[in-house]
Specification:
Elements lengths: L1 E5 L2 H18 L4 E4 L6 H12 L9 E4 L1 E3 L10 H13 L6 E2 L8 H14 L5 E4 L21 E4 L2 H7 L12 E4 L2 H5 L3 E6 L5 H9 L17 E6 L8
Parallel strand pairs: 1-10, 2-3, 2-6, 3-5, 6-9, 9-10
Antiparallel strand pairs: 4-8, 7-8
The protein binds fructose -6-phosphate.
Length: 242
């Protein structure tokens, strides 16, 4: 995994947006794998600027998101569909029919997982996958485990993830306990991977993922085996690197 060290969140966001814009210019019909959370907000903001300045168009792009909470509908303000709509999709004017997330309201887990895997397959796989990293090293909602998952599956969120994500909810009790997530196998099949990390609370996960042993106990460590994975991390996130 190649490391691009930057000073702060703003520089990380600008650099990530540059790389994504380059991808879309080179291949306007790219399939972009997208993430939610705090980390990519600045990247989306930069991409919206590019689009508003006429530097790129997302008209021919398809998007597939990493994950969605179980039990939250698309118009629930805490759902990842809602996050994508308000942070990115509406602002870039993309046709919603070109954007895909797991359906958190589908209670038929098997059907939903295979539907989502077929969606990604049908789009010809992911050209560029954007990732954030959890404090425990999760990518998507692939939590530390004893094996690497393959395709889309339903996970039980760890206490550490519930604790980290409760800031978006009225209380920790309201954070859904389950989520659908793209599997590690699907993420690894993306042609290019862009992992972003900002802030001191990511420093342990960044060190372990970049310089530690490749193990499903630290899901992001698998990215060491990817042919074209780039980590853009700011000074605080790099503060524990050897
Ligand atoms: C979000 C996702 C998660 C986040 C991670 C970091 O779609 O898949 O893996 O990227 O939890 O979240 P933030 O960016 O909020 O620190």
């Amino acid at each position: 995994m190649k490391l691009i060290r930057v000073t702060d969140y703003e520089e990380m966001s600008r650099k990530a947006a540059e790389i994504i814009a380059e991808q879309v210019k080179e291949k306007p019909e790219s399939c972009l794998g997208l993430a939610t959370g705090e980390t990519p907000v600045g990247t989306y903001r930069e991409l919206v600027h590019y689009r508003n300045e006429g530097k790129i168009s997302f008209e021919r792009v398809h998007t597939v998101n990493l994950d969605e909470y179980c039990g939250l509908s698309a118009d629930d303000r805490q759902s990842y569909r809602y996050y994508m709509k308000t942070n990115f999709f509406d602002a870039i004017g993309i046709d919603p029919a070109r954007t895909f997330l797991p359906d958190g309201m589908n209670t038929d887990v098997e059907a939903e997982c295979s539907r989502y895997d077929r969606v990604i397959e049908g789009l010809g796989g992911i050209d560029l996958q954007l990732l954030g990293i959890g404090r425990n090293g999760h990518i998507g909602f692939n939590e530390p485990a004893s094996y690497f998952s393959k395709g889309t599956h339903c996970v039980t969120l760890t206490e550490s993830t519930i604790e980290a994500n409760k800031r978006y909810f009225a209380s920790a009790e309201e954070v859904p306990r389950k989520a659908y997530t793209m599997g590690i196998g699907t993420i690894m099949a993306a042609k290019k991977i862009l992992l972003l990390a900002s802030g001191r609370e990511k420093a342990d996960a960044v060190r372990a993922s970049l310089q530690g042993e490749v193990t499903p106990e630290m899901p992001a460590s698998i990215l060491q085996f990817h042919r074209d994975a780039v980590l853009i991390a700011d000074e605080e996130a790099c503060s524990k690197l050897n």
